[in-house]
Amino acid sequence: MSKGYIRSGLYDELLSKKKQKILNDESFEKVLQQVDPAEFSSYAAVYLEKFLRITLESIKENQRIEKGLELCNSFIKKLGEISSDFDESDFATEEILLSVLKKTEKGNSNKGLKHPGRPLSQSALLVNARDEFRIGAELKKEIQSADRIDFICSFIKWSGLRLIKE
Predict the structure, then answer these.
(1) Are residues 86 and 124 both part of a single domain?
(2) pTM of the predicted structure, to 2 decimals
């Protein structure tokens, strides 16, 4: 967003002081609402994520992991000063955890778990479009390791229901 410019439309985000100053101009008609304390943590997390992403993407790629970990871990350290729930054992590393199985669980193998085409940390709209991930195949992969399933579907064919049942 360039300085001094706000698009007309619907928003659902914390209002920055920069936008607040711009919106004080009488040429804007706006609707504001006080954030509910019960929802503030979600709004704040989304707000901070935007700045963290922009900052990390501005770091040269060959330094991004090192500098990014420094930034993340300094933030966790600062949070640890406020909440005793966090300490250095919560610091991020350069590795991504992809799967875990207890060795005592007979017949289980991490090799048997297949990751879906999209990262588990991101939500996705699967529409079975050409050159897109297929809903049935993606569901099979995710259901293997799911501890719970939240599923929204506007319509389903019998062939699709059969895939889910299997």
Answers:
(1) no
(2) 0.64
Q: Which residues contact 35 (CB under 8 A, 6 or more apart)?
A: 14, 43
Question: What is the predicted pLDDT for the residue at 100?
Answer: 78
Domain boundary at 62, 90, 118, which? 90
The count of domains in the chain is 2
- Tell whether 76 and 116 lie within a shared domain: no
The number of helices, as runs of H, and strands, as runs of E, in the chain is: 5, 0
Provide the domain limits for residue 74.
Answer: 17-90
Separation between Cα atoms, residue 144 and residue 150, nearest integer Å? 14
- Give the pLDDT score at 1: 42
Residue with tokens 């599923």: 151
> Among candidates 160, 165, 166, which has minimal Cα distance to 128?
160
Looking at the structure, do residues 78 and 27 belong to the same domain, yes or no? Answer: yes
- Asked whether the beta carbons of 126 and 132 are under 8 A apart, the reply is yes
